[in-house]
C-alpha cells in the first residue's frame, strides 16, 4: 500500500513539474516572440528522447496567413556542418581517409599545409568565400556547381598558418562536401540520404540545392525593423555542404538520438568530434568537428546556430542530461531564447546580467559605422539607447556592461569598442565563441535620433 501511495505522489509531482516546465518555456518563448509576432517559429525541447515542450508561433507564410506548425520544414543553414562532419568521420571509420590527410590529396592545387582536420575545425587559413568582396551580390547569385565554387575558393592566398587560429569558415565545409562526393562516388545529397537520413528515419530532411517547391516548407523572410521583405537571393547550389539541409524539429530529435546511440558512428569517435580543437600554440578553441563545444553552468553543451537568408535556426544538446533544444524561424534572433530554454530544461537558474545606465551624451561617440571586408556594422544612438544593424539588416538594441563593452540580449554576443581618438572609437571588436574579430571605423555620425 505504501508503494501505491508513493507512486501516486510521484506521478502527481512529476505531472506538476512537467506542467510547470511547459508553462515556463511557453511564457519565455512568448516574451521573445512578442517583438516578432508574425515570424514563424517552431520550438522544441526534449529530454532522453521524451518531448517536454513543442509548439509553433506566428506564420510560416505571411502572404497567405498560413500558421506555423511543429511539422513544418525550415532551412537549418550551418547546422548542416555537423552532418558533413559526421559523413567525413564515417568515411574515416571505413578507412577511406584520415583527418591528417592533406587537402590536396583529394583536391589538387590547394596549399599542402591544409589538413582535413583544419577544414573541420575552422582553422585552415582559407578565406571564407562569403567574405570575398565580389561574392555578394555578384558571385552569390550565380548557378555554380560545387567544383566551380571550389575553384573560386582556391584563388586566394592563406590568411594564416593552418592550425594557428580559429576563424569560422564556410569554404572548408564546402570542400569537405566535394571530398564526400569523390570518395563515396555519390552526390552529397545522395550520401546523406543513404547513410544518415534513411537509416534514422529522418523522412522530412534532405540536402536542398535547387529552387524546387517543397511541401510544408516555411517561406523565408527578412524582418527589418518590423517589416517583412523577401530575403536576398543566394543561388541554392552555393551553400552546399556548409548549409543546404532542410529539416524539422522531429527529425533533429531522431538525429541526436541516433547519433548518440552509436547508429551512425562509433561513440568513441563522436566523443573525439565533441572535443575542443587545440591550436598549434596549445590554445583550446570552442569548436570540435562540426559543433561548437562549451560549458553552461557546469554542463557540457554542444551546439550550432545558423543564419540562411530568410531563416535562423539553433540546436543545443546537453550530453550529460540528454536535453535537446531546437528552434527554427523565418526569421528572428534565437540564440538567447534557446540558451534560456536549455537552462530551464536542465533545472538551472536563468542568468541575470547587470547593465549600466549611460546618458545620450555618453553613447554618442558610438554613433558610427565599422567594416571588415564586406561585413559592415552600423551603430545608432536613439535617445538613451544604442542599436546595431549588420549589413543593413534589422536593428537590435545592445546594453552597456562597461562604457566600451556591450551585450546583445537577442544574440548572446559581446561588442567592444577601443582605440579612442578625439572622442571616437577607431576599432570595434566582435566577440563570439571565444574569438575576436576587429572592424575599422569607416564613418561617424555627429548627430543621433532623439
From TrEMBL:
Domain Beta-lactamase-related: 39-336
InterPro entries xrefs: AmpC-like (IPR050491), Beta-lactam-related (IPR001466), Beta-lactam/transpept-like (IPR012338)
Leader sequence residues: none
Pfam families assigned: Beta-lactamase (PF00144)
SUPFAM superfamilies: beta-lactamase/transpeptidase-like (SSF56601)
Record protein name field: CubicO group peptidase, beta-lactamase class C family
